[in-house]
Design a protein that fits this description.
This protein is of the alpha+beta class. The protein is built from 6 helices and 12 strands. The strands form 3 sheets. An 8-stranded antiparallel β-sheet has the order 1-2-3-4-10-9-8-7, covered by helices on one side. The longest helix has 28 residues. Keywords: Membrane, Transmembrane, Transmembrane helix.
Length: 237
């Protein structure tokens, strides 16, 4: 009797397993009916597009690079412009290293970059401007962050006090809706664009190669140099 009962239980278990396998097979074959959203392909995020831009500053001697990287993130189109060039004369030692494919000893480079975000909603655009300014000022509040951070001030940066740290630039001279400077960073908006750039050390054209100064963002010549970058065409990715 026990043997017959054992065989009966074993047969029942095997039958239950077979029924479960068949049921699972039917279920997976009809996933598109039960859960159609599972089989929909994930929306493909287009890869960044990199465009070569014309020369930006005078005085570049070699290895000039001026690019615009376009990508989309969270419904916002970004255009990151990056510029660099070497401005110093190469020494004999530098020339020897260069012939061997090695970096020069005393390479002096200029870097300038601008970030543009196309945000069509005005409320969201203003919020993004405020957030970027707050993030920058908070960064300036801390030092020594390689090992640990030391807070320079106990004042909490908020939406209500961020303009206390910002210097408004002349929006009319820049022909923009608003523009502010915090330390060496400039923030502004025009139309549906939020733009930001860091005030770089740049070569004075026609001066010795070791003469570099900070860009003066109130100088009409500097404004005329940077302003077209804000309007640069950014195709939708």
């Amino acid at each position: 009797m026990n043997g017959e009962r054992g065989r009966s239980v074993s047969t029942g278990v095997i039958a239950a397993i077979l029924i479960a396998i068949v049921a699972l097979s039917i279920f997976f074959q009809n996933l598109d009916i039960f859960f159609p959203q599972l089989l929909e392909p994930d929306p493909q995020i287009p890869p960044p597009v990199v465009l070569e831009l014309p020369s930006f500053l005078e005085g570049c001697l070699r290895n000039e690079e001026n690019t615009l990287t376009i990508y989309e993130e969270d419904g916002i189109v970004h255009g990151d412009q990056f510029y660099q060039c070497e401005i110093n004369e190469l020494s004999e030692a530098d020339e020897i290293l260069k012939k061997q494919g090695l970096a020069s000893i005393n390479s002096q480079e200029i870097h300038f970059s601008m970030s543009i975000q196309i945000i069509r909603d005005p409320i969201r655009r203003q919020q993004a401007l405020t957030r970027e300014m707050m993030d920058w000022q908070r960064l300036l509040q801390f030092v020594g962050c390689f090992y640990h951070c030391i807070r320079l001030t106990e004042i909490e940066i908020t939406e209500d006090n961020i303009l206390d740290y910002a210097v408004p630039l002349d929006a009319g001279d820049w022909q923009v809706d608003q523009i502010y400077q915090i330390d060496q960073e400039v923030f502004g908006t025009i139309g549906d664009r939020l733009f930001m750039f860091h005030i770089a050390n740049v070569l004075i054209p026609h001066e010795p190669s070791d003469e570099v100064v900070l860009l003066d963002v109130t100088d009409p010549l500097i404004i005329n140099k940077i302003r077209p970058l804000i309007d640069i065409e950014i195709p939708q990715p």
